[in-house]
Amino acid sequence: MKRSIILIQNILYIGILIYSLTSCYASHKIQKNSDSTALKSKLSTPINLSLIKKDSLSNSYGIESDIIYSNMVYPPEGSQEDENLGLDNPNVRVESLAIKNSALSCFNTERYKELVKQRAIVTLIMYTDKMGIIKEVLIRTSPKETLLLREEECIAIIHKIKGLKCTIPPAFVNFSYYKVYQTIHFR
Amino acid sequence: MITFKDINNINSYTFAGELFHAYQQQEYGNLLEIKNSADQKGRSNIEFEEKFMNLSMGIISGTYYGSFSDMDGVADWILTQIDNNNGNFPTSFSDTQQQEYLSFVNNFQQANIGNGTGYGTPVDPSLNQPNAVISIISNSNCEQ
Fold it and tell me: Which one of B13, B62, B77 has the shortest CB-CB distance to A183?
């Protein structure tokens, strides 16, 4: 009798152990599968260019997931600009050149020549944080104009320019973010 | 003659601005009369045009440019005029362009009333296009 009780107990323990092990493995497998599905879906989600802003003077295209400042009021609420301090910026030429060269590196020679032939003009609207680091880039067109650049070119430009620097002029030093334009002439 | 408040006030931005005022004097011939008149009518137009020049030069030269909130929408408007004119700054303004230009001058004047800058002085509606800017661009050999 005692033996059969011990036997039944052992069978129960082994059963519980097997159940625990299999359910633990199954849940691990489900978790692993869902992680890899999420990662796969993240990697395969295409980055699209979207029309971010539209008004009577311009259309602006950008990457939806990049939006930080462009849907906020500009000038930033609570920020005071001081016209007496002016817009002097000794770094403007060097920084502009870096931005333009980064944008132009997104075109191969053939495509560049094509845009020169069209006398294309592309304007970027860039938002910097308070340190002057570019965090968001939009590509501007006039309201009636179609986007001259291809979608993949715009996306490449946006990625290349984010992280570059625009010195904030003294008049705007206490802005929490700052907006600047950069026009690129293909000529 | 160009004058600055003091030596600390001389930099590339203020120098370009004051040099442009000297050019406006050549173009219009009455800047001092406007400044010395009782109501300074037209001074806001003169000051607005100087800011307009600054934005236009940023666009044409291809360096980045920002602006004060009293110039809100002006950069976009200049870009649209250039887009609509085969990539060149227009050498004359249509009636519609003159009206739109003047509405920006009015916004600028309104935003500066009573702040002591002189930018809030009465607008002269006869100065309805940036003649000094047009003159500089038309007389320049630089490719836009």
Answer: B62
